[in-house]
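During the first year of the project, the team set up a workflow for recording each protein of interest as an amino acid sequence followed immediately by a discrete structure-token representation. This format lets reviewers and collaborators read both layers of information side by side without switching files. As required by the reporting guidelines, we include two representative entries from the current panel. The first entry is reproduced here exactly as it appears in our internal archive.
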Amino acid sequence: MAEKLIIVMANTDPRNGEELGAPIFQATVAAAMDYEVDVICTATSGKLMKKGVAEQLVVKAGSPKTVYDFIKDAHEAGAKFYCCSPNLDLFDMTEDDLIPECAGIVGGAYLIEEVMEGDTKVMTY
């Protein structure tokens, strides 16, 4: 059994809130099961790492819980969130713009190295 799970949110579009629940919830569950979990937000989902964005989104209309609440739950369970480095330029962000739950910035080599050299399983959204 893999000890690490990487969830790559690349095609998950923050403009469609119902797409955001599953990957973040699965990160929470895997972390609660004591797996090491990295969530890499890249492409359009990289916007979720910017302060103020996830706070404005909900998975289901009328829900009192925001996407940011789900991110905080996953983070508290032990999941680590990362912003892909090209997103800084793409969305005019700096490191200071990132939410506190973002563990840092990673590039494409990080994902490739983790998959090729480790006992890692990858889920993509």
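The second entry, processed by the same pipeline in the following quarter, appears below.
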Amino acid sequence: MPLNTESDNERRVVIVDDHAMIVEVISEILGKLPGFKVVGHAATCREAEAVCQGTKPDFVILDVGLPDASGLEAFRKIKVLLPKVRVLIISGNLNDWLIKKALVAGVDGIISKASATSELRTAILNVSAGRSYLCNQTSECVRHMVRAPAVPPVPKPRLSKREHTVLRHIATGLSSREIAAKLGLSPYTVNNFRSKLFKKTGLHRAAQLSLYAARIGLIKDPLGSAHPGW
């Protein structure tokens, strides 16, 4: 939704998130920072494209888990419209696969929704000023990816159609609550599916499930690499 604001000296910001409370918190933070003006917000990929086209922001804060598409798809569309716009990705469920895909796509910054507001302010100031920013959790994931030994082959278990669906959503970075909302299930049921997936695959972390989903063809591997033995 575009907002009526005009200023040549302020960075124009669009916030893309389908949770009103998150939008309100980010707007509050931006309101206390000099040189920023929120000119619009959107809750879906389609709305984000329209709002950015109409408001021509300098800076976009973009949630990865949008209702109609991945936030990274929205990122690609926004960058086609506005090649010079700076984009900070936020997520409530960061994992190795999502971080790899975001970095390969060329996002300017990544921050977890679990980060402190002070870190969010730091991320906003860095990314809007032309610098890159990775939150503490993202930096730790990157260090883990660089240092982690090769994952040994695991058997391909027989998964139900619903388990495949839940696995795909986990791999794209959605939380149990977000998956439950998409599938019309309770978060408790989704957590049961998570437990079954860990048990069937023999894996122990959501990031490993994401890589596994890429290797069995449920999602595209962001690095396009081959994984013998999977």
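For the second entry, the following points were noted during internal review. Residues 187-201 form the longest helix (15 residues). The CA atoms of residues 110 and 134 lie 5 Å apart. Both points are flagged for discussion at the upcoming steering committee meeting.
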